[in-house]
């Protein structure tokens, strides 16, 4: 079946580079086949590139053009868990099969309802049947907890392994999901923030984990310097490896320790931008974020949870009050975004605030 789509037309001589760049920017529509003729490749994309994305494309493919064409669709979507298990599970269990799972590298992570616990191995095998690249299926056996935001898992199918390599927008991340927090559901947020960073900025990633914000920023922005902080020694070791693998070790500086103490000791007034992706307790570190920004001000990417009956305005007011207590002021909110639903009537929200 043919589908109409916006596409990037690139000369064949730089076509492969353009495809890889479109993948890195999250632009390519992978549900459609790339087309070609004698001179050009036609790469289907999911939306019109922003001006910054177009500037990045111009560096690799100076004569690219945007146009609309018809493309052939790829094969039928993969089977669902219900389709795979309909002859193994009774109807009442099929009705409560998990609707979503996270795939990190070749590891799938799933939440198994208590009623299906006795059949979790069959569920794990079904996940591997649908997702051919998955070698391990882990079932969540506890909530994210502790300073390092870790969770316990049970292996329900495949290899007994929690270490993998996750690919995201052209970057490779080594991670052990049992030792360091990583969420593939934040991939679009990693990209969004990375595209906002300007040439020559200094960024402090206050809760960096294995580096999905820090590495992507360094990979996509010229003359940037990123201080990547985390209190988890395992996360920092993976972060160091990820800077080397992605060849950004010269502009990402991993630092182990508590963000507040690191700022006080080493990073007062250095940053144009601070990233606070610790939604459970980011509000406790607003004073440190205010201190890390340059005297003329900067941008904070603040993450928090909003639970009904509270609203986004509640979170905005909480941030503004904390900033004022730290002796600075929120000049304005540049962006307010619902990142994802984390529980019934609960959302993770990103606030981009200009602080002076």
Provide a concise account of the structure shown.
The chain is of the alpha/beta class.
Q: How does this model look, in words?
A:
There is one protein chain. With 356 residues, the protein is of the alpha/beta class. It has 3 domains: 71 residues, Alpha-Beta Plaits (2-Layer Sandwich); 81 residues, Met-10+ protein-like domains (GMP Synthetase, Chain A, domain 3, 2-Layer Sandwich), CATH 3.30.300.110; 173 residues, Vaccinia Virus protein VP39 (Rossmann fold, 3-Layer(aba) Sandwich). It has 11 helices and 17 strands. The strands form 4 sheets. Strands 13-12-11-14-15-17-16 form a 7-stranded mixed sheet, sandwiched between helices. β2 and β3 form a beta hairpin. α6 crosses α7 and α9 runs parallel beside α10. The chain is globular, with a radius of gyration of 22 Å. The N and C termini lie far apart (54 Å). The mean pLDDT is 94.
């Amino acid at each position: 079946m043919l589908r109409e789509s916006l596409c990037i037309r690139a000369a064949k001589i730089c076509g492969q580079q353009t495809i890889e760049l479109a993948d890195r920017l999250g632009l390519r529509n992978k549900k459609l086949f790339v087309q070609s003729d004698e001179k050009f490749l036609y790469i289907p994309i999911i939306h019109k590139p922003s001006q910054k994305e177009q500037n990045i494309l111009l560096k690799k493919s100076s004569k690219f053009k945007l146009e609309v064409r018809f493309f052939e669709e790829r094969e039928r979507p993969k089977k669902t868990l219900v389709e795979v298990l309909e002859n193994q599970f009774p109807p009442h269990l099929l009705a409560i099969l998990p609707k979503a799972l996270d795939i990190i590298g070749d590891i799938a992570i799933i939440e198994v309802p208590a009623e299906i616990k006795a059949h979790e191995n069959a569920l794990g095998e079904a996940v591997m049947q649908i997702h051919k690249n998955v070698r391990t299926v882990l079932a969540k056996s506890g909530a994210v907890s502790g300073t390092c935001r870790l969770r316990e898992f049970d292996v329900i199918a495949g290899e007994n392994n929690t270490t993998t390599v996750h690919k995201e927008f052209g970057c490779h991340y080594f991670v052990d999901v049992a030792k360091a927090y990583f969420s593939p559901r934040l991939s679009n947020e990693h990209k969004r923030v990375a595209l906002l960073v300007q040439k020559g900025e200094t960024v402090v990633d206050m809760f960096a984990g294995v580096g999905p914000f820090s590495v992507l920023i360094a990979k996509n922005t010229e003359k940037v310097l990123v201080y990547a902080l985390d209190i988890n020694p395992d996360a920092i070791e993976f972060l160091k490896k990820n800077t080397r693998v992605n060849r950004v070790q010269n502009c990402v500086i991993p630092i182990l320790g508590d963000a507040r103490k690191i700022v006080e000791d080493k990073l007062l007034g250095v940053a144009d931008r601070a990233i606070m992706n610790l939604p459970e307790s980011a509000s406790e570190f607003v004073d440190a974020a205010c201190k890390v920004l340059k005297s003329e001000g900067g941008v904070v990417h603040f993450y928090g949870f909003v639970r009904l009956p509270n609203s986004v305005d509640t979170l905005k007011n909480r941030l503004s009050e904390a900033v004022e207590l730290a002796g600075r002021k929120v000049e304005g909110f540049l962006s307010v975004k619902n990142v994802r639903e984390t529980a019934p009537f609960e959302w993770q929200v990103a606030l981009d605030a200009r602080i002076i």
